[in-house]
Amino acid sequence: MNIEKHISSCAHEALRSLYGDVAAEAVQVQKTRKEFDGDYTLVVFPFLKQSRKSPELTAEEVGRKICEMCPEVESFNVVKGFLNMSLATSFWRELFCGLVLDGGFGFGHKGEDRVMVEYSSPNTNKPLHLGHVRNNLLGYSVSRILEAAGGNVFKVNLVNDRGVHICKSMLAWQLFSDGETPQSSGMKGDHLVGKYYVAFDAEYKKQVKELTSGGMSEEEAKKEAPVMKQAQEMLRRWEAKDPEVYALWERMNGWVYEGFDKTYADMGVSFDKIYYESQTYLLGKELVEEGLAKGVFYRRDDNSVWIDLTSDGLDEKLLLRGDGTSVYMTQDMGTALSRHDEFGFDKMIYVVGNEQNYHFQVLKLILKKLGYDWADNIYHLSYGMVELPNGKMKSREGTVVDADDLIAEMVSTAYDMSKQMGKLDGYSDDEAMEIARKVGMGALKYFILKVDPKKTMLFNPQESIDFNGNTGPFIQYTYARIRSVLRKAEGMGIEVPAGVDGSFVPAPKEVELIKLINDFENVVRDAAAAMSPSVVAAYCYDLAKEFNQYYHDFSFIREDDPAVRASRLAIASFTSVVLDRALSLLGIEVPERM
RNA sequence: GGUCUCUUAGCUCAGCUGGAUAGAGCAUCAGAUUUCUAAUCUGACGGUCGCAGGUUCGAAUCCUGCAGAGAUCACCA
């Protein structure tokens, strides 16, 4: 339940009975800060004009009234203009019982709100890198969060599988590969294709250099380089569905998809539908006609079509080339429309890097101008770039952090560290690898998701990923520890009850845990509203930290009093359930031991 | 140049719709294990919340200006 809201409306009632008309917005109830006594705090400054008393006297007066009117509020104290209220321990006990009974926090029920989330959206000419990792983890986590908050979520991926950049890899493979395949080389398909993309670039540079040393300007050389002309010719043949080119394209993309599937599986992300740009790139042309008919767009002498957005503080934007072919914006408009027709979304979320902020601003605006009001339901979940200690990732300088390498590195580090600490003693290789996989991926996912999506984040391969402190493994460890206690209890024949009985008087630390557990529902709602997994990450950390303190100060199976022991085990058990649920929203798995 | 975003401890980050003495982790230093997992816990050290104004009883938070960093303004996607 939302206790703040409840206390807030109690306070509102009390204020009204004292001072008459009081605006609900003026009533602000917040959690009492740890350094003060109390559970919830009412700020009384806004009511001084009506009370005509000092802040302290006003708070006293309101406090007495609330105690009188609201049975949950047991006592209060006043510090300056702050009224700190304490709730009865029986209230917390009953709250915990209610949570256990409810049990699910509404999980597992698909809501009414139809939400489409597009993320990942890779190019098929090279393997995924660190930037994609942030995108994928964010997209997946946000989907989970929205689902938990009651959305009917549909995850989609729009694969950029066509274009001259794809042809570059294909051409280089034809020229230099001697027929190399993933099978013949043992190389992962996406990496193999990426290798030829790099090979193209090398050859291209070589040719440009030759041409410029022959006296040609660099600009011209870039256009005239034979491999570039060949790549463009190949794109034309692809568009004409030339059987030979098409077959090669399908074959090489197939290799890439096999590779991507592996990376996606490793990251634990999935999609409900995959769109291919080769099937959608012609969409949107009828919208251009529509825009022209409505006078929203205009045609220039060279037959190209534009929209003038200067009155909205933006620029003029091209929508159709002079030769009648469409551009990125046109495709995206068409894709959005067809998705809306097909899926009927209440919300469409694009998880795309912040370098495309302008694109999405324009996309929404154009759709609005065409009269599609649902454009208001389009959200660009814009996330910041991942930077390395020496700046941005640059493929030319070989500073790109490859996703597969990173994953392998994380898991092997987790393995080595676990081994060193003797955590893997007595486990089979498979069990040990499974623990290392969960912990290593947990570290990576938490590290990336704990940062506010919109912020540029720094990734230091040597130092950034930690397993202590505010990290994924810290939270996983808390979970594993609880599970260990519960296993031992079971082994000793001690029953772990789901809830607590009427004799249970929660200690202050237990009240803190109950409060936090109760907060989970609000946290999910807030995270969904902000589309920010970092809210959930912070919650996981708070809960784990709180529990670790509890664990340190209290006994569980060592406790002699059976009733007390049972209550503690119940709290521990339920904490593990919430930790599991919360981490699952980040796509992080929990190990039963580590 | 226009538009947008970011700037909080040595480092990486929290601080949401304005509220009390700005919080964590890492790093540094000092402690805690006969006892349920020490990947833990306790403490110390560390701040001109980029700068300057403004609104307010009250500003890291809202507004304006300035500085620094980044993105974008393609007949690329």
Descriptive overview:
The chain is an alpha/beta fold and 594 residues long. The chain is built from 21 helices and 14 strands. The protein has a five-stranded parallel β-sheet, with helices on both faces. A four-stranded antiparallel β-sheet has the order 1-2-4-3. It has a three-stranded antiparallel β-sheet with strand order 8-9-10. The model has no long low-confidence stretch (mean pLDDT 92). It binds one RNA strand of 77 nucleotides through strand 10, helix 14, helix 15, strand 14 and helix 18.
Radius of gyration: 30 Å
Strand order of the largest sheet: 7-6-5-11-12
Task: Let me know the average pLDDT.
Answer: 92
Largest sheet: 5 strands, parallel
General form: globular
Structural class: alpha/beta
Q: Would you report the number of β strands?
A: 14
The DSSP helix count reads: 21
How much helical structure, as a percent, in the residues? 40-55%
What multimeric state do the chains show?
single chain
Query: Distance between termini?
Result: 33 Å
Stretches with pLDDT under 50, minimum 5 residues: none
Strand content: 5-15%
